[in-house]
Structures are given as structure tokens and as C-alpha cells.
Design brief:
Elements lengths: L1 H22 L8 E6 L5 E3 L12 E3 L13 E5 L6 E5 L5 E4 L10 E4 L10 E6 L2 E6 L5 E4 L10 E4 L10 E6 L1
Antiparallel strand pairs: 1-4, 1-12, 2-3, 4-5, 6-7, 8-9, 10-11
Length: about 180
């Protein structure tokens, strides 16, 4: 009986430690997420599941929380020693990228094939309360919804960091 209790306690502790690991909201290499805007609850989306290189990414209504659409799911890939990640579409396998490696405010955020040593495809996550802001490794500007992102279909751009800006804050919703 004592051995059964010990065994059950070990199983309970193993399950609890596994669950605690899953609840971590810190970005994790290889994990898949929906990137949900704090402003309006819309998520980063590849419009119309487009396979087109250079297509601007948008914010769109979440299609299905229980079984997310691949065009709204993003996999993180650690980017060497930068402390950042490539954000890769589950739909297209292309990366969230600053168009033309631009350093200017308002440069569009597009999907492009992964390129080695492309700082415009590396994003550094900074915790902001319960959400994260994502800073381009090449320009130090933030992933931002245009027009403050209030409309469905708002395009994504990069812009100077703005303190407590809802249109620059995203929740990482982990998906399988």
C-alpha cells in the first residue's frame, strides 16, 4: 500500500510539472501560437491563406479557437544568439518580415521565405504585463497594427515603440 501511495504521488508530481511547463507564457522555440492583439482580440493573419511572397499580413477575426486555421498559427524558431525568433506561418512556412529590410516607420510587415542572417525576419519579444511587444531586430521598431488596428483587416507595419500602446501588444495563445 505504501508503494502504491508513493507511485501515485510521483505520477501526480510528474503531471503537475508537465502542466506547469505548458502554462508558461514565455515564447518557446518550436512552439505554435496565435498572436492576438490586445487592442481588439483579432489575430495576426495571412489574408485569404495567400501563398504569395510579399503579401502584407493583417489582423483578422479568430476563425476557430479550438481548431485554429493554419493562416492564423505561427511557429517560433530561435534565431541563434540574438535572443529573438523567426515567426513562421503554419500555412505558408514563410516568415513574418519587414518589407525590404526597411528602417522607416510604416514599412509593411509581409510574409517572405526564410533567409539566412535576415535581421528583418527576427523579432525580439518583450513582456508587457500579460502581453508581448515584438521588436524587429533590424530596425528596433515594433510590430504595429495600422490605424491603431480597430478595423478587421488592418495591415501590419513597423513603428517606433509607444508606451502602453494596445496596437503594439499581443497575447501569445499557444496552440497544438
Amino acid at each position: 500500500m505504501f508503494r502504491v501511495k508513493i507511485l501515485l504521488m510521483c505520477v501526480f508530481l510528474f503531471i503537475c510539472s508537465a502542466c506547469a511547463g505548458d502554462k508558461s507564457d514565455a515564447p518557446q522555440d518550436g512552439a505554435r501560437y496565435m498572436l492576438v492583439s490586445r487592442l481588439n482580440g483579432f489575430c495576426v493573419d495571412v489574408p485569404a491563406s495567400s501563398m504569395e511572397e510579399g503579401r502584407q499580413l493583417i489582423l483578422w477575426t479568430i476563425n476557430n479557437m479550438k481548431n485554429p486555421s493554419p493562416n492564423q498559427v505561427w511557429r517560433l524558431q530561435a534565431a541563434g544568439e540574438t535572443g529573438g525568433y523567426k515567426i513562421i506561418s503554419a500555412q505558408t512556412e514563410m516568415c513574418l518580415s519587414v518589407e525590404g529590410d526597411s528602417r522607416r516607420d510604416g514599412a509593411r510587415i509581409v510574409q517572405l521565405p526564410s533567409a539566412e542572417n535576415a535581421d528583418s525576419q527576427i523579432w525580439v519579444f518583450t513582456k508587457n504585463g500579460k502581453q508581448y511587444s515584438m521588436r524587429s531586430n533590424s530596425s528596433s521598431k515594433m510590430l504595429t497594427a495600422t490605424g491603431y488596428g480597430v478595423d478587421r483587416g488592418a495591415g501590419l507595419v513597423q513603428f517606433e515603440p509607444i508606451d502602453n500602446a494596445d496596437h503594439q501588444a499581443f497575447t501569445l495563445m499557444r496552440v497544438r
